[in-house]
Specification:
alpha+beta; seven-stranded mixed beta sheet; 23 strands; 22% strand; 471 residues
């Protein structure tokens, strides 16, 4: 760790999602002083989808310069989406553009790496498609870009890539190394057998706790002056949200962290309850503990199904589609508990608000089922974008009457968790439990609708598995 440049002052947090890039400025008492947003740009390199990291870095640098000047920011922290890494050398060399995780590796590469992937009982990570397991993408570059890989000094996880961009420091971090990538063995609290088998261990730099100060960066202000601020080690976004709620004093709860993905983590779920065929896995907390998890791309699916609907959804629309028996069945994006089947709407055509109602019902049904799969009987904490949709949280509460359901009032758990981790390194603990109880809806017939949805989804999955020779 590095001696801090400052022990006090506001903190800038970049929360980098796959779809949205955000910057928040937090005061030492936890208040949000400023907020900025942009979108990452994705391009192509040798036929591979890649991030335009220069475009994103330019935006980050400009906004950081502005908030340092406006708010006298003294520290920088980063929370970032999963499944992403960079090959780097020294303090300036990015050896290949950063891959987009939503692309499948070539069949020949997939066939070559598959036998090397560790057993589920070691990594608690199933054999995932696309780049959802970054070990497959690392292997892809090692095979197809051998010169770049040979020159690689460090494989950096995505938050640590941005730490490197601002400081030149090479570091690793628990929550990202353990985020469903076949690189980590949670029970051993060490790298997996795959890392040693492929000779990658030396490519991963030393592990430093998330939030720890690892260096400084000098920010050039618009008036030509410069200011040096601390840079804290970054964190995996969903695990950041989990850390935030634990740091506010909550115990024995299931977090439903929503954004592009719905990530559900229940620390009370036994590891032997995880079903590798249903996108259930163990993440790792910021402290290095196993974190039983389940995920599906609920935010993406809601946007696709609803046609980008952003207006309120009324109970009349919900009751109308339920009365007609209209169901959205999984899956509308890769991953999730129903990877064998493609999404469809059955029971009739819908448009406008009614289609949005079907989308909301779908995400509620998927969340409710996922909570059962991950053995959730404790308090449910809903965080992120979907927490802003009253219908989503209230119907979920109606379907789970034996559990307390609460939602975040700030809906930015990953960014706030990142801030909490950075403030902790300064000896500050500004955040308190700000969740509020969700009042259950009283939608007539919702429970029967849930039962019928599960029957239809399970039947579709069974048919697909029989056709594929899996049952």
């Amino acid at each position: 760790m590095t001696t801090p440049a400052s022990q006090s002052g506001p903190l800038a947090v970049f929360d980098l999602g796959k779809t949205n890039s955000k910057l928040f400025v937090f005061s030492e008492d936890g208040a949000v002083l400023d907020e900025r947003r942009s979108r990452p740009v994705w391009g192509s390199h040798k036929g591979r989808a890649v991030l335009d990291e220069q475009h994103l870095f330019h935006w980050m640098s400009q906004e950081l310069s502005d908030v340092v000047a406006r708010h006298d920011v003294t520290g920088l922290m980063i929370s970032a989406h999963g499944c992403t890494f960079a090959l780097v050398r020294g303090d300036t060399g990015l050896l290949h553009p950063i891959l987009d995780y939503e692309q499948e590796i070539p069949d020949a590469i997939a066939a070559k790496v598959a036998p090397s992937l560790p057993a589920f009982s070691e990594t608690y990570t199933p054999h995932l498609p696309l780049g959802f397991c970054i070990a497959r993408h690392i292997f892809w570059l090692a095979e197809e870009e051998p010169q770049a890989f040979a020159e690689t000094e460090s494989i950096l996880c995505y938050p640590q890539y941005w730490v490197w961009r601002f400081t030149g420091r090479h570091v690793s971090e628990y929550s990202y190394l353990g985020a469903h990538n076949q690189l980590w063995a949670p029970l051993k609290r060490d790298y997996s057998s795959l890392v040693d088998r492929l000779g990658w261990r030396s490519r991963f730099p030393a592990i430093v706790p998330s939030g720890a100060i690892v260096g400084q960066t000098t920010v050039r202000l618009n008036d030509g002056s410069k200011k040096t601020i601390d840079v804290h080690n970054g964190v995996h976004d969903s695990n950041s949200a989990l850390a935030y709620y634990r740091m506010t004093g909550l115990e024995h709860f299931t977090i439903v962290s929503t954004g592009t993905w719905v990530i559900i983590i229940n620390l009370d779920c036994p590891l032997n309850a995880l079903d590798e065929e249903r996108d259930m896995l163990s993440n790792v907390t910021v402290n290095g503990e196993p974190a039983p998890s389940l995920r599906f791309m609920g935010g993406r699916e809601y946007d696709l199904l609803s046609g980008g609907w952003t207006k309120p959804i009324g109970p009349v629309a919900v009751e109308a589609v339920m009365a007609r028996g209209v169901f959205a069945l999984p899956s509308w994006a890769a991953g999730g508990p129903f990877p064998e089947i493609k999404g469809e709407i059955v029971g009739g055509d819908v448009a406008g608000e009614e289609r949005a109602a079907v989308a909301a019902l779908y995400v509620v049904m998927m969340t409710d089922l996922s909570l059962d799969l991950i053995r959730s009987t404790n308090k449910v904490v809903v965080d992120g974008g979907l927490a802003k949709i009253d219908l989503y949280t209230s119907m979920l509460a109606q379907l789970r009457p034996e559990q307390a359901v609460v939602r975040s009032t700030m809906s930015e758990g990953s960014a706030t968790g990142a801030a909490a981790l950075a403030f902790k390194a300064r000896g500050l603990f500004p955040f308190k439990d700000e969740t509020v109880a969700v009042v259950a809806s009283g939608v007539a017939g919702l429970e029967a609708y849930r039962d019928r949805w599960r029957e239809l989804a399970s039947a579709a999955r069974a048919r697909a598995r029989r056709a594929a020779g899996l049952e």
